[in-house]
Specification:
The chain is α+β, with helices and mostly antiparallel strands and 137 residues long. The chain is built from three helices and six strands. Strand 1 and strand 2 form a beta hairpin. Helix 1 packs across helix 2.
């Protein structure tokens, strides 16, 4: 897998993926940015959320759960000093559907967090991850 990140102006960058997609990254005005894109650390949280959500939805579909929506709300705590690494990440899943079995949803989240989500598993040694879920009908 290959990607590229090109400086465009100030502290703004354009990231391009091998699959042909692009995203703008930028910083706040106090650091020379124009707030024209996401911050790199925000992208990391979105990447983790996307990776685990992909797993959870796929597992629930294979488990024949009638899922209609899945939202992963991700919160984090960062170190005070530089580097401001993530210390804790919590993912709260809101899963909607008819007749969803909470045990099956919890199992899907556990499988993602322990076996399938490359993004979070790669970081698990240095970050305290936690997960929970709520079922919405």
């Amino acid at each position: 897998m290959k990607t590229s990140v090109k400086w465009t102006d100030g502290v703004s960058f354009l990231g391009k993926s091998e699959s042909g997609h692009s995203v703008t990254l930028d910083g706040p005005s106090e650091l020379g940015g124009k707030n024209s894109g996401m911050r790199p650390m925000e992208m990391m949280l979105i990447s983790i959320g996307g990776c685990t959500s992909f797993d959870v939805v796929t597992i629930l579909k294979k488990s024949r759960q009638n899922i209609t929506d899945c939202v992963a709300e991700i919160s984090s705590e960062r170190a005070e000093g530089i580097p401001k690494v993530f210390k804790k990440i919590h993912i709260h899943f809101i899963v909607s559907g008819e007749g969803l079995d909470k045990a099956v949803v919890e199992r899907a989240i556990k499988l993602s967090s322990e076996k399938y989500c490359s993004a979070s598993i790669m970081l698990k040694e240095s970050i305290d991850f936690s997960y929970d879920c709520e079922i919405v009908k």
